[in-house]
Amino acid sequence: MGARALTCLMCVVIALNAIAAAAGLALFAVAIWVTVDGYKLYPISSVSGKDDIFAAAWIAIFTGFAFFLTCIFGIFAALKRSRGFMMAYLIIMFIIFLFECASAITAVTNRDYLIGNSNLVKKQMLQYYADSSTQGKQITQTWNRVMEQVECCGADGPADWFQYNSTFKQMFGSTYIWPLSCCKRLSTFEVEDKEGCMVGKATTIFSKGCFQYIESVLSRYTWAVSWYGFSVLMLVFLTLMIAMIYYMQLE
Amino acid sequence: MKTSLPSLQLLFIRVDSYLPDIFLSTDTSQVDFYSRIYLHPFYKMKTNTVIRWMSLLSIWMWTGEGQIFQPELTSNAFLAKVTSNTVILKQPYCVFNQTCPGCEIWLVAGLCSAKGTFDALVNSSTPNILSLSPYPTAFNPSSNNFFLTRVGLLSDFPCNQNPNDQYFVVGADGICSGVNCNGVLPDGSTVCFKYLLIDANGTLVNSSDWSGNITLPKLLALNTISDGLSARSGAMVVITTILCVAAALLLLLFLIMLCVTCCTKKDGKKISVMNSIRIPRYDTHNLKERVHPYDNPAYQPDLKNYSTSSTLPRDGARKL
User: Fold this and answer.
1) Is the CB of A111 inside 8 Å of chain B's CB atoms?
2) B250 contacts chain A (CB < 8 A)
3) A1 to chain B: closest CA residue
4) Which of A163, A205, A227, A234 is the best residue to mutate to test the B interface, defined by the most B CB atoms within 10 Å of its own CB?
5) Strand-pair partners of B153
6) I need a surface site. Which of A169, B193, B217, B266 has the fewest CB within 10 A?
7) What is the pTM of this model?
8) Which of A101, A164, A166 sits opposite B247 (nearest CB)?
9) Which distant-in-sequence residues (6+ apart) come within 8 Å of A71 by Cβ?
């Protein structure tokens, strides 16, 4: 291959590596955002043992940063025009590629188990809300916060609380049909109309379900890890193709 | 006949109670009409056909105003109107119209299959109706399957008010232990209700009709919720397939690349320069690639000025 063509190819490899390094660093940042869980919905996935979205985010933290470092090494290897370095670069990139694939696939598959429909979230709520175990306390706190902030009640609606048997019903069923977190409150945090809320008067209780909110948050986390990871992987795939061609053109 | 008599009483007494407020009532036209007809010093409970026809006509005209003769579900759209063990009824305004000082309205709540049992017990004039079937044992297998609970004083539910937003929750006390407490109904049963008018001595004065059958939904157990995988979303299929294909393709191309580079290493003629003469180089000796015995390093800096990089020996090219 001509010298100019080789130089041109080298420039392309360096440019793609630079973009991939930036993308890897962004993946690192997004995965940290998911792991930090600003919406504090981690107990909903951990109590049922299906917290793979967050596991995938942890993997993405490491692979994102590894992509960043390896792509910088790749820029160096391309400048050096060294076959040895380029081979090392290709092997390391391939290994990181596999790990990132695993992360993206895990996140998107686990999302379907967790929030494909509202059954798992509803069953977990009915089983653990007001339970005195550690998991019960976590779930109770999470649901209370979600119901009060998002102004919703139950998974699909307040009907969940009286259609199904639940720990809450066993403990408080003779007084309350649903938790007081379902009731509308004044700015002083007092319940606006406790009697009306206990019978389900429409103006005093939140009648929409919380599942839509929970589903949107967990989907947001999943798309951050899996779709963005997928796009980074496509970019890296292209980079590795070009790098392999460059490798073959080196002596 | 027996059921129409209370209706007649109802009608006469309603007019009676309206008379003092005749100009305050909202339905002045109807009341005026009736007051003219029935403002007679003596109205007795005689089965006079004219009076019966007129009262039946009046009953037909008055039913549109929400007068109830049997317990009914509340007309409000409460979410918990009928749950698996509680029911929300309208308050018993204008069910009984006799003036009965100190009388109380009580509710009979029980399985619809126990209606006959209750009626038989009442007709056999047992002395103390209120303790007939205490709540804690009411729904045991061989028990009466009904219980009585107090709703309120008759005077609290006058006929001139009929607020539809008032309600009475059957089962408000939960699982309680009093004889006449307002306990929960059996899960998923079909229940019927009846109002009783009990006087201060505890004797039955009057009773309403039985309500319609109200079927309570059965409480579902948690294991009826199937929390397995519902469906695989499209995104999952797309991401999984494309990434698996990409990884496999990458591996394949990587192996091809290794094969190609390994295969092209073995053969191939190399041209090197001995000073300024181009000669093809033959491997006459069994030498490794890195050794270039025919190159004179002393002359390498000069070579740059006289030849292009492709003809230079490999060592020289690297240094430049």
Assistant:
1) yes
2) yes
3) B310
4) A163
5) B104
6) B266
7) 0.74
8) A101
9) A17, A18, A20, A21, A24, A93, A239
CA dist B139 and A221 (Å) reads: 52
- Burial profile B17-27: b = 16 or more Cβ within 10 angstroms, e = fewer: ebeeeeeeeee
Compare CB distances from A94 to B80, B242, B254 and report the shortest one's residue.
B254
| Tens-digit pLDDT profile for residues A197-208 | 888 888 899 989
Pairing of strands B277-281, B87-90: unpaired
Domain boundaries, chain B: 87-219
Does B124 or A15 have the greater pLDDT score?
Answer: A15
* Nearest C-alpha in B relative to A125: B222
Indicate the burial class of B165 (C-beta count within 10 angstroms; 0-12, 13-18, 19 or more): exposed
Chain A residues with CB inside 8 Å of B225's CB?
Answer: 119, 122-123, 126, 164
d(CA A133, CA B81): 32
Instruction: Check A127 against B221: CB less than 8 A apart.
Output: no
Interface test with B, best of A50, A127, A174 (most B CBs within 10 A): A174
- Please report where in the chains the tokens 């076959």 appear, as a residue: A83
Architecture of domain A118-211: Orthogonal Bundle (1.10)
User: What is the identity of the amino acid at B159?
Assistant: C
Q: Which residues contact B85 (CB under 8 A, 6 or more apart)?
A: B171, B184, B185, B186, B187, B216, B219
Task: Answer whether B84 sits within 8 Å of A162, measured CB to CB.
Answer: yes
Residue type, A72: I
pLDDT digits (tens, 9 = 90+) for B65-103: 444 578 888 888 888 889 988 999 988 888 877 788 888
Q: Strands B214-215, B204-207: parallel, antiparallel or unpaired by DSSP?
A: unpaired
Calculate how close chain A gets to B103, using CA atoms only, in Å: 27
The shortest CB-CB distance from B239 to any of A83, A201, A230 is to A230
pLDDT in tens, B270-289: 555 566 666 666 666 665 66
Integer Cα distance of A66 and A95 in angstroms: 10
CA distance A125 to B65: 45
Interface of A with B in 64-103 (CB under 8 A): 83, 90, 94, 97-98, 101
Q: Is the ipTM of this complex over 0.95?
A: no
In this predicted structure, what is the pLDDT of residue A239?
A: 96
Contact A165 B219 (CB under 8 A): yes
Position A132 pLDDT exceeds 50:
yes
Number of residues written out for chain B: 320
Domain ranges of chain A: 3-116+221-249, 118-211
